[in-house]
Amino acid sequence: MCFNFIMPPAMADILDIWAVDSQLASDGSIPVDFLLPTGIYIQLEVPREATISYIKQMLWKQVHNYPMFNLLMEIDSYMFACVNQTAVYEELEDETRRLCDVRPFLPVLKLVTRSCDPGEKLDSKIGVLIGKGLHEFDALKDPEVNEFRIKMRKFSEEKIQSLVGLSWMDWLKQTYPPEHEPSVLENLEDKLYGGKLIVAVHFENCQDVFSFQISPNMNPIKINELAIQKRLTIHGKEDEVSPYDYVLQVSGRVEYVFGDQPLIQFQYIRNCVMNRTLPHFMLVECCKIKKMYEQEMIAIEAAINRNSSNLPLPLPPKKMRII
């Protein structure tokens, strides 16, 4: 005799205000408790899917009606902090996130002065991504897990050390290495347009898109030159700029095309040629790349300092027993 058992569908906890089917947030709003630096407590009905930025503006409009408002600084001097669902204290620096994604405990949001500890912020982001606080991993006693963590930590520390002292361009090569394929494509001429490669380029924060027919053996910096000349032709003379002030970024990806190699050797270009699609690039100013580089160097320095401060104390010398 055979019995077929069918498991019932999983159901969300109706008492969880963050669950999609929760009856506690059926109208789309939830009560949130706000704690101000002045000691004032405010409760507001907040849209469940509102962004942190929108919620802060909502709160600021109400704060004017409460005592000691004159003791507060400008709104941009503050950010929200909370205890999240992984029991980790988290500062909500990214104000584009939605409240339902942050999932603060109870929920309570505390208005705090902006801090600049990149190490703690990184730990918080890692905890949010993996769905578990890093302090929980620290409490694990599994030898296999601990061995894996030691190996991965050593690998990560070696990777961090390899980035220290690099120039921003060398950092870019290490962090976002271009994908090259030096071998010659078969039937390449059949995939090109009269032996030419057609690419589309636009500048960041600009709606103009320029198309160029170029040699597949041209290097990326030449595209920068063509795009700058085209923009000057259309918009007239601007401040003096150099092709070396920009880096080509694949549109819609965190992938960069730079260096002395011919364009046809870049994997992205090859894929576009083989699929007969138009390669699309965005010209990003080098100062933006340098800012990314500086932020990572600050985070690396904080991680190195934190690791050195957490080193175990050396064992005391053994006492020799004289007979």
Automatic annotation (TrEMBL):
Residues in PI3K-ABD domain copies: 26-115
Catalytic activity: a 1,2-diacyl-sn-glycero-3-phospho-(1D-myo-inositol-4,5-bisphosphate) + ATP = a 1,2-diacyl-sn-glycero-3-phospho-(1D-myo-inositol-3,4,5-trisphosphate) + ADP + H(+)
Pfam annotation, one family: PI3K_p85B
EC numbers: 2.7.1.153
Example of a GO MF term: 1-phosphatidylinositol-4,5-bisphosphate 3-kinase activity
Membrane-crossing residue ranges in chain numbering: none
Span of domain PI3K-RBD: 194-285
Lineage: superkingdom: Eukaryota
Pathway membership: Phospholipid metabolism; phosphatidylinositol phosphate biosynthesis
InterPro entries per record: PI3K_ABD, PI3K_Ras-bd_dom, Ubiquitin-like_domsf
Protein family membership: Belongs to the PI3/PI4-kinase family.
Descriptive protein name: phosphatidylinositol-4,5-bisphosphate 3-kinase
